[in-house]
Write a structure and sequence with these properties.
Elements lengths: L8 H4 L15 E2 L7 E2 L11 H5 E6 L8 H6 L2 E10 L3 E2 L3 H10 L3 E7 L7 H10 L14 E3 L14 H19 L4 E4 L1 H8 L11 E4 L17 E5 L7 E5 L3 H9 L21 H12 L12 H13 L10 H7 L10 H12 L12 H13 L10 H8 L1
Parallel strand pairs: 3-4, 4-6, 6-7, 7-8, 8-9, 9-10
Antiparallel strand pairs: 1-2, 3-11, 4-5, 10-11
Amino acid sequence: MTYPHGRSGAVGRAGWRARGAAAVAALTALCAGGQGVAHADTTAATKAAPSTAVVRGLDVSGYNPHVDWEATAARGAAFAYVKATEGVSYSSSYFAQQYKGAADAGLIRGAYHFARPDVSGGRTQADYFLAHGGKWKRDGKTLPGTLDIEANGRGDACWGLGRSAMTSWITAFVNKYRAQAGRYPVIYTSATWWASCTGNYRGFGRTVPLWIVNQSGTPTPLPAGWKTYTVWQTADSGPFPGDQDVFNGRPKDLKTFALGDYTPPPPAPSWPLMQQGLTGQQVTTVQYLLDAHGASLTVDGRFGAGTRDAVISFQKSEGLTADGIVGPNTWQHLVISLRQGDTGAAVKAVQEELKAHGIAVTVDGRFGTGTRNAVITFQKSRRLAPDGVVGPGTWMNLVS
């Protein structure tokens, strides 16, 4: 997706990605603070669930004015999203031909709206979107409209809105779209922006489909509130024009999604990409594990400069690329195999993760019988060998 008015995303993606990334082999990652970060810690990323590798698609805008849709379909594209509007003053002059071209080539397609919370309210922009291509039809070939909500590449990343105001803005758009179109829109966003600009608001996860942007080779971490995703933007270039996407499901599931409600499967277990700017349970786990390796962090679930510095120190000590980003390689060095009788910060990390998964356990840093039983319960729920030992496989399932 692009900003403004279909120009290149080098600025408009607001630093969420570096240009030319490929889905799995890329050495780029989402970043905090608007600066692209190239690093080597994503190369060992666990591959996504098989279903996400099958149904491929793309998203385009006026920046891709002349798409050969027949050739794109022949290369394997099954769906497409087309930019329709931005704010309340721009509608793409290429939208009609792109939208029709995708449908004529047999692709299931939908429209998206680039949010401008700085210029008008959410209801107003939903109305504008609906009036300029964003409507949905239950015809099996039209995807629900998408709200593209991301960082402002030319100013304050949150468009001048506080977290509560931003949440209210999104809610107004979502509710207006649902009332008029008859179903919830998709929300396109990243975990980093969501944490920064909504304060990890969790209220949309049960009803609103998620289109996650993460070009590190894994769709996780997901924004707060969502346990899975429907579409994953994997790269900004590839075999198709525009951005590259995958659908979380099978071809018949894509049509089900076009027709109405669809519940996608949860992401396959993988090591999440953690970096400065993120907050939440996974950050808490990173901090506990760093402390277990000799750091002295305040465990507050906020990946700030102090946590980044501690990550860099740890990476240097382990001979890893010292980029301050916790990707698969760093995770696998951080985690410690634990069993009954162990104590310390790493045990607290396990206990906190078990609690986050809804399993009752006391967080006291002591791996006693209660913790072992909780680990076995979790392992059984994930179809892991129920041995009560927290090894790399159990760790990955805990933090995924």
